[in-house]
């Protein structure tokens, strides 16, 4: 993504309409990916009150599943995406069962240490298995012309997947009984138990779904940039900013915040020198903490 934006840079004094549309497409794509990552993160926090430091590492697992299955095994790269999502759902449930469930009633710092330990284990395992060298999945799908903009085919498909995933997750949370149970548990765990919701089961499903969303976000990354075992750290840091921006535990806030940070990242990278885009993101983070610490959506689900 960074390479794509850098390649578009022109004179800082103006921006062509076609370049603006190209940046807009990149911003929507990155915003969708950020939204998926932040949604999984805030879903786990909102329902279980657990801050999952391993979330970025789960995203990296999704990246390497797609990269390995499509390069070493030779599967169609688009068929590997649902495989990655299912694998991360199962992995998320396993992590919850083995590490989170036994300490659900422990102080929150215990959960932070445990999830940080899971992060180190996952990243180290990926480095041992695949090495720490950057990997890429070259996929020549040509380009599609839209409104005078030539969008690379791989990035366009990643964009469509991100948008579709955001819409489906939103519909699931709003329109299904299980989605309403998840939102109800996020609002009040005790009240959810009183009305017959199996809260421990919701915890398992929530952690699995959160991991699956991280896996889905990671699964589209090999189509747009090189990957390495530590790439999830950058996305995780910005995902925490998005969660605070949207409101802790707020599902709509995660999606809207993801889009906002996606736009700031892409247009900031185009117009600002060096790491100015990341500085802009953290300035937004600080301003939100100072002016509206509850976030844009006030922590509601």
UniProtKB/TrEMBL annotation:
UniProt keyword terms in alphabetical order: Amino-acid transport, Cell membrane, Membrane, Transmembrane, Transmembrane helix, Transport
Pfam families per the UniProt record, alphabetical: BPD_transp_2
Membrane topology reported for the UniProt record: Multi-pass membrane protein
Family of the protein in this entry: Belongs to the binding-protein-dependent transport system permease family. LivHM subfamily.
Bilayer-crossing regions: 20-43, 50-69, 81-100, 112-132, 152-173, 204-224, 236-263, 270-291
InterPro entries for this protein: ABC_transp_permease, BCAA_transport_permease
Record flagged with keyword Transmembrane: yes
Superkingdom classification of source: Archaea
One of the GO BP terms on file: amino acid transport
Cellular component terms (Gene Ontology): plasma membrane
One function term, GO molecular function aspect: transmembrane transporter activity
Keyword Amino-acid biosynthesis: no
Protein name as it appears in the record: Branched-chain amino acid ABC transporter permease
Location(s), subcellular: Cell membrane
């Amino acid at each position: 993504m960074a390479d794509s934006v850098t390649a578009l840079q022109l004179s800082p004094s103006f921006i062509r309409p076609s370049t603006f549309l190209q940046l807009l497409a990149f911003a929507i794509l990155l915003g969708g990916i950020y939204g998926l990552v932040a949604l999984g993160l805030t879903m786990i926090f909102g329902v279980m009150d657990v801050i999952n430091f391993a979330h970025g590492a789960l995203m990296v697992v999704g990246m390497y599943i797609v990269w390995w299955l499509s390069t070493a095994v030779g599967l169609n790269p688009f068929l590997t995406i649902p495989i990655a999502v299912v694998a991360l759902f199962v992995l998320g449930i396993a992590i919850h069962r083995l590490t989170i469930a036994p300490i659900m009633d422990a102080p929150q710092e215990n959960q932070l240490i445990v999830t940080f330990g899971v992060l180190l284990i996952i990243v180290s395992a990926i480095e041992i298995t695949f090495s720490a060298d950057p990997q890429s999945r070259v996929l020549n799908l040509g380009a599609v012309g839209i409104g005078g903009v030539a969008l690379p085919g791989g990035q366009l498909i990643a964009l469509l997947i991100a948008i579709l995933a955001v819409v489906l997750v939103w519909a699931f949370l709003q329109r299904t009984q299980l989605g309403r149970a998840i939102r109800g548990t996020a609002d009040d765990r005790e009240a959810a138990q009183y009305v017959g919701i199996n809260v421990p089961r919701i915890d398992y499903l929530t952690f699995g779904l959160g991991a699956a969303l991280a896996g889905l976000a990671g699964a589209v990354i090999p189509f747009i940039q090189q990957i390495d075992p530590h790439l999830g750290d950058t996305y995780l840091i910005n995902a925490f900013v998005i969660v605070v921006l949207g409101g802790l535990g707020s599902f709509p806030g995660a999606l809207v915040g993801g889009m906002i940070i996606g736009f700031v990242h892409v247009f900031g990278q185009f117009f600002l020198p060096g790491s100015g885009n990341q500085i802009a993101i953290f300035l937004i983070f600080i301003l939100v903490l100072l002016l509206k610490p509850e976030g844009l959506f006030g922590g509601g689900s």
